[in-house]
Structure formats: C-alpha cells, structure tokens
Amino acid sequence: MTHVIHPFPPLYDQDSKILILGSFPSVKSREQLFFYGHPQNRFWKLIAGIFDEAVPSTIEEKSELLHKHHIALWDVIKSCDIKGSSDSSITNVVANDLSEILEAADIKTIIVNGKTAEKFFNKYTKNKINREAICMPSTSPANAAWSLEKLTDTWKEVLLAPLR
Q1: pLDDT, tens digit (0-9, with 9 covering 90-100), for 11-34
Q2: Which residue from 29, 34, 36, 108 puts its CA 20 to 30 A from 61's CA?
Q3: Confidence of residue 164 (pLDDT cuts 50, 70, 90)
Q4: 155 forms bridges with which residues in the sheet?
C-alpha cells in the first residue's frame, strides 16, 4: 500500500455543463499527469465516438475535445492508500472538494464513472454538495462485460441530455 495524493488538477471551464468523476487516477494516469492514461481504458474512444470526433491522442487534444463538448473531468478522491491501480485496495480516503468546479461552471449533470467512483461519491461527497450523481458503467478495461459499443450506447443517452 502506498499513500498517494492526486497529482494533477481538474479539467473544466466556465462553460462546462457535465462533470464526470472517476474514483482515483491509475498508475498510468499518474505518470502522464492526466485522466484515463491507460491505453486499454475506453474513455477517450467512448467520448470521441459519442460526439463523432477523432480519438484524441495528446493531452492537448483530449482537453480540447472535452472543452468543446462542455465536459469537466475530476476524481472523487484527493488522496488515499492504494496498491498500484487497484480500486478494491483503496483505503484512508480524503475526498476532493468539488466546490471550485461547481462555483465556476453551471454543472447540469454529475456522472460517476463506475461503481467505485459511485461508492466514494455517495460516502464522501453527495451530502456535502447536496447533489445526485448518475452512475455509468466503468470505461476501465476491468469492466470486460461491457463492449465499447454497449458502453457508447449507454453513455450517449446521459451525456447528450444536458447539452440539448
């Protein structure tokens, strides 16, 4: 177990309408200092597919894609004890303060990416901000039961609603 502090800031701007929260960045994401850095994570393919865009490869392209579609990204957890990238090993959680994003942007929808993010959101964040989050199936490669196509269909409905 290693005590890890979240190593990079949230991604948002004043035009963000949707906030997607992960649990805590993987080892690969921590190395890259950006969200969903593991090449097997389907997050970037999912977002690109929903908005009919090219899959971004650089951090700059990823940031531009999210800003263009009014999506903010952050994680529920600010620091924790974790073994590698294993969500099931997470203990000693300190949650991120979402007020910075919620005060700067008119967030219509909060989405948690997977059950671990949902668990920690409900435990540490929900009552503080007095807002619900929609739990979507995880884009992690560990969620092998969901194909990219099935993930995209499911996420699309929820992601496009606040943008209509």
Answers
A1: 999 999 999 999 999 999 999 999
A2: 108
A3: confident
A4: none
